[in-house]
Design a protein that fits this description.
By secondary structure, this protein is an all-alpha fold. It contains four helices and no strands. It is rod-shaped, with a radius of gyration of 24 Å. The model has no long low-confidence stretch (mean pLDDT about 85).
């Protein structure tokens, strides 16, 4: 593959990965967690392909050296844009994790307060069902 083709492939992967990351960030900010699984699979596949291509570029620095300075600058800007999108995504993931952790803690405290009667029974001794739902993606 020619140097320009290799850099084009890397930049295409970077842009696709950035789009997925930005989409995931928006979904996390809206707390629409049910949509994440598909995106995370796509992000993982793109990330792996990107890593392989970047490894090949780093292993052969003469590829970048043979390119026009403008193309190298475009690649540098694309790398910086991807890093910034990744930083925002990491922040959104951490924020979502904090929210989910707080919800789980509140549920735990709430359930703990209700343990005055024997577990599974109300104050009159009648059995009761306590509805609780857990999301596997948490």
């Amino acid at each position: 593959m020619k140097p320009l083709e290799q850099v084009t492939v890397v930049m295409t992967l970077m842009r696709q990965l950035q789009d997925v990351i930005e989409n995931e960030t928006e979904i996390l900010q809206m707390m629409k967690l049910d949509r994440l699984e598909t995106l995370q699979e796509e992000k993982a596949a793109l990330g792996e392909a990107y890593e392989i291509e970047m490894y090949n570029l780093r292993r052969n620095p003469e590829i970048l050296g043979s390119l026009d300075i403008g193309i190298r600058r475009d690649l540098e800007h694309a790398v910086l844009d991807l890093r910034e999108a990744s930083r925002r995504n990491t922040h959104a993931v951490d924020a979502a994790r904090t929210v989910v952790d707080r919800i789980v803690q509140r549920l735990g405290r709430s359930i703990g307060r209700r343990t005055m009667a024997p577990a599974g029974y109300d104050s009159s001794g009648q059995s009761q069902v306590i509805p609780v739902a857990f999301n596997q993606s948490i």
